[in-house]
Amino acid sequence: MDLTAPTIILTLVWGVAIGCVYILLATGLNIIFGVMKLVNFAHGQLLMISAFLTWTISVSLGLNAYLAIIISMIIVALLGIVVERFTFRRVLGTDKLNEIFVSLGLIYIFENVAMLIWGASSKQVTSPFYGMSVSLPGFSITYDRVIAVFVVVAALATFGLLLWKTKIGLAMRATSQRNTTATLMGINVQRVYMFTFAIGAALAAVAGGLYGVIYPFDYQVGALPTIIAFAIIIMGGLGSIKGAIIGGLLYGITEQMATLFLGGTWGSAVAFTLLIVVLIIRPNGIFGEKED
Amino acid sequence: MRLKQTLNTFLHSRSFLFIIVFFAITAFIPLLLRDNFFLTVMTLITIFSIYAASWNFLANSGQGSLGHAVFLGVGGFASAIIGSSISKAAVNFLGTSQMPVGGLSAIILIVALLLGGLLSAGVGLLIGLACIRLKAWYLAMVTFGFSVIAATLSSQFDSITQGINGYTTTTLVTKGYPFYLLVVLFALTSISVMYFIMNSRIGLALRAIHGNETEAKMIGVNTTKYKLLAFVISTFFAGLSGGLYTYFIRLIDNSIFSPANSFLPLIMSVIGGLGTVPGPIIGSIFFVSIQQISTLPSVVDSLNGALGPYFPSVSNVGPPLSLLTIGIILIIIVIFAPKGLISIFHKIYKYLMSEQKNNKETKPK
C-alpha cells in the first residue's frame, strides 16, 4: 500500500466526488421524508433506471451524455409522479410497515423491468470527456469527476432556490411542518406530495446519470446507494439539507478512506458501523426529534 | 400450572389440529407423486415456511427486520461447519473410513442444526440489544446494515467460512424423501412452538407492544425483555431454517447474506397474511411455486418463445418475469388486501357459508 500524500489527497477528492452523488440521492430521499414522512426504499432504483436511460439516450440518439442526463431527469420525474399516484398515495397514513412493503414491491418491479429491457450485463455511459483528466502535481483526476461536483452544486442550488424562493417551495415547507394546518391554509397537500416526489425522483435521476458516467452499473446497482443515502440523512439529521451535505461528504470520504486503509470489501461495512453506532446512541438520528 | 393449562388448550385447539393435519398431508403427498421436481419444490416450501414464520413472529411484536438473511446465513454456516466437524470426529472415533448414512448421522445433523439455530439466536440477542430502542425504518435500516456487515465479515474470515468459493456440506441424511421428512418434522415443531408462544402470555405481551409500546410499558409489561425474547426466538428459528436450507442445496456461500434473502420472509408473510399462523405458509407456497415453475424447461421454452423477441438482451425471461410478478402482486396485496391472501380465503369461505345458509332459509318447506 502506498500511503504518500498524493494518494491520500486523491482519495479525499474521490471521496468528495462520490460523496456528491450520494448527497443528491440523500437530498431527494430527505425532501420526500421531510414533506411526506415517507421513506422510499426504492429510491436507489430510480438512480439505476436513470443511469440506464442516460445510457440509452446517449447511445441511440448520439447525444452528449450530460444532455442525456437532463432528458432522463424529466422522464424519471414523470415516473416518480406515476409511482406516487398509484402506490404510495394508497398506503400513506396507514401502518408504517406498509410503506416498506410497497417500496420492496417497487424494488422488485424496477430491477426486473430493467433486467428485461437492458439485460444483466454491466454498462457505462460514455462521456464526451472520456479519458481526459486534470493533471495536478502528484496526481490527476478525470474531468468527469470534477464535472460531477459542479453538476451537484448546480442541482442543489436550483433545488435550494425552489425550496426557499418560490410559492411551491413555501407550500412544501409548510406541509413538512404540519400537513393538516397546511390544508387549512389552502394548500393542496396531495399536489404538494406529488410535486415533492417528482423533485425527489429528479434529484435521484441526476445522481443516476452522474453515477453512470463515473462507474459501470447494472440492474442491481440501486440497492446499496439507497441505504447509503438513508445513512447519510440519519447522520446529518432528518429534514436538514445542510446536514445531508455534510453527511454525504463525510460518508464519501469515510468510504474511500476505509477502502484505502482496510481494503475494498470494508468500504460499506465501515460506513454501516458508523450508522449503527449513531443510531444506538441516538435512536432518532443526530438531529432527530424526540419520540412522541 | 398456568403453562400446563395453556398447553392443554393449545393442544386441543383447532389451529393446532390444522397444523398437524396440514403437515401430515404435506409429508405424504410426495409419496403419491413420485417426481423429483415436485419434491424439490415441496422441500423448499417447507424450509421457507419456517423462515417466513420466524420473520412473522418478530413482526408480530412490531419489529420489522430487513436483515433476516444474517440469521439464515449464520445458521447455515454454523450448522454446515459443526456438522462436518462432528462427523469427522465420529469417523475418527469409530475408526471407519466413511460416515455411514443412518441413525447416527441423522442425530449428528439434528444436533448441528440445533447448534446452528442457537448460535444464530446468540447473534440475534446481540443485534436485538443494539436495536432495542429503534423503530420502523430505523430498525429496518440497521438490521439491513448488519446484513452488509455480516457479508463483509464472512469474506474477511474466509479461512473459517470458505464463503467466497462456497462451503460444501457433508451429506448426513440421504437426499430426497428422507431429508424431506426431516424438514417437515422440523417445520411442524417450529411452527407449532411459535404458534404456541404467540398464543401464550408472551404472545399477548408482544401484541401489546406492537399495539402501543408506551401503553404496554404503563400496564407493567417489561417491553425490553419481551422484545429481546421475540428477537431471540425468531432468530433461532431463522437460523434453523438456514441450516436446513444449506443442507438441502449442499453448498453455502456469501451470497446467502444478500438483500433478496432478507426480503424473502417479509414478502412471503405479507402476501400470505401478516401476523397469522397460516400466512407465512401460504406465502411460501405462493412464492416458491411461482419462482420454481418459471424454471421448468417447458415453461421457460414457451416464455422465451413468446416474449424472447421483445427482450433481446435477456437470454432467459423466466426469472425476471417471475420476480416482476411477485413485486406487482406484493403491491396489489398491500394496497387492496393488507391482511394478505388468507383474508381473501376467509372472505370467500364466509361468502360460501352465507350462501348456503341463505339457500337453506329460502327453500320452501
List the helices and strands and how they pair.
The complex is a heterodimer of chains A (292) and B (365).
Chain A: H1 5-36, H2 43-60, H3 65-91, H4 96-118, E1 133-136, E2 139-142, H5 143-165, H6 167-177, H7 179-184, H8 189-214, H9 223-236, H10 241-262, H11 266-281
Antiparallel strand pairs in A: 1-2
Chain B: H1 2-11, H2 14-32, H3 36-59, H4 69-94, H5 103-131, H6 136-156, H7 158-161, E1 167-168, H8 177-198, H9 201-211, H10 213-218, H11 223-249, E2 251-252, H12 259-272, H13 278-293, H14 297-307, H15 318-336, H16 341-362
Antiparallel strand pairs in B: 1-2
Helix pairs in contact in B: 2-8, 3-8, 3-11, 3-12, 3-13, 4-5, 4-11, 5-11, 8-11, 9-11, 12-13
Please outline what is shown here.
The complex is a heterodimer of chains A (292) and B (365). Chain A is mainly alpha-helical.
Give a structural overview.
The complex is a heterodimer of chains A (292) and B (365). With 292 residues, chain A is mainly α. Chain A is built from 11 helices and 2 strands. In chain A, strand 1 (133-136) and strand 2 (139-142) form a beta hairpin. Chain A starts with a helix and ends in an 11-residue tail after the last helix. The model of chain A has no long low-confidence stretch (mean pLDDT 81). Chain B has helices at residues 2-11, 14-32, 36-59, 69-94, 103-131, 136-156, 158-161, 177-198, 201-211, 213-218, 223-249, 259-272, 278-293, 297-307, 318-336, 341-362; strands at 167-168, 251-252. Chains A and B meet through helix 3, helix 4, helix 9 and helix 11 of A and helix 6, helix 12 and helix 15 of B.
What level of helicity do the residues of chain A show?
over 70%
User: What's the main sheet of chain B like?
Assistant: 2 strands, antiparallel
Tell me the domain tally of chain A: 2
The share of residues in extended strands of chain A comes to under 5%
Strand neighbour order, sheet with most strands of chain A: 1-2
* Helix-strand sequence of chain A: HHHHEEHHHHHHH
Largest sheet: number of strands, sense, barrel closure of chain A: 2 strands, antiparallel
Q: Give the termini separation of chain B.
A: 53 Å
Structural class of chain A: mainly alpha
Count of alpha/pi helices of chain B = 16
In which range does the helix fraction of chain B lie? over 70%
The CATH topology of chain B turns out to be ABC transporter involved in vitamin B12 uptake, BtuC
